[in-house]
Amino acid sequence: MGLVPRTKEFDETEVLELFRARGFKQTSFDDLTQELGVSRQSLYDTYGDKNTLFHAALRRYLAGGLEKMSRTLDNPAPIREVMAGLFEGLISANCGKSCSGCLMVNTMVELSPHDPEIKQMAAEDARAIEGLLAGRFAAAQRQGEIAADTDLAALAHFFYHFILGLGVASRAFGDPESLRRSVQVALESLS
């Protein structure tokens, strides 16, 4: 009779939230074990080290974000309505009372300049988001909602950067009304 591997004794969503609230550098392995109520060995057995755990948590967060964005952009409503809904979702998620902002934005600011793997993950995420946006803009362009001569790649790039800016501003200021006014200005570029 062989040994049955132990299942994880912790919730990976809690890991995401710890890193999201504190950042990579400010979250120690001891913090993780105490907050999650698990042994160091359990975390070591599952991930090996804090860096591997963080990268796994970030990949999970990014995959979930892309899936949610894809579902939002699949809405056949007019493009301004779709984008307004996307931004409202981001503002609500990132400006909540106990919210710590976007994990990817926080990570890009904290680690991208010094961690080539994080920089690579950020670049891949940017390409994926811009691809989703450009695809949705192309559909809107075919419907006559966006001018035929609009550079859709540039528009997607602009809105990706706008999303990053919302993430930073929501973390720094947490002022949803100010962000909503900025969204209205950005939506005017969709014509």
Brief characterization of the structure:
This protein is mainly α and 191 residues long.
Give your account of this protein's structure.
The chain is mostly helical and 191 residues long. The protein has a domain at 61-187: Tetracycline Repressor, domain 2 (Orthogonal Bundle). It has helices spanning 12-22, 29-36, 40-47, 50-73, 79-94, 103-111, 116-142, 152-172, 176-187. The longest helix is centred in the last third of the chain and has 27 residues, at 116-142. The model is unreliable at 1-7 (pLDDT under 50).
Main sheet specs: none
Assembly state (oligomeric): single chain
Report the CATH C-level class of the domain at 61-187. Answer: Mainly Alpha
SSE sequence, one letter per element: HHHHHHHHH
Reported by name, the CATH topology of the domain at 61-187 is Tetracycline Repressor, domain 2
- Give the class from helix and strand content and strand pairing: mainly alpha
Strand content range: under 5%
The amount of helix comes to: over 70%
Alpha plus pi helix count: 9
Catalogue the unreliable spans.
Answer: 1-7
Shape designation: elongated
Q: CATH homologous superfamily of the domain at 61-187, by name?
A: Tetracycline Repressor, domain 2
**What is the number of E strands?**
0
Q: Which CATH-level-2 architecture of the domain at 61-187?
A: Orthogonal Bundle
Mean of residue pLDDT? 88
What Rg is obtained from the alpha carbons, in whole angstroms?
A: 19 Å
Our measurement of the CA-to-CA distance between the termini, rounded to an integer number of angstroms, reads: 67 Å
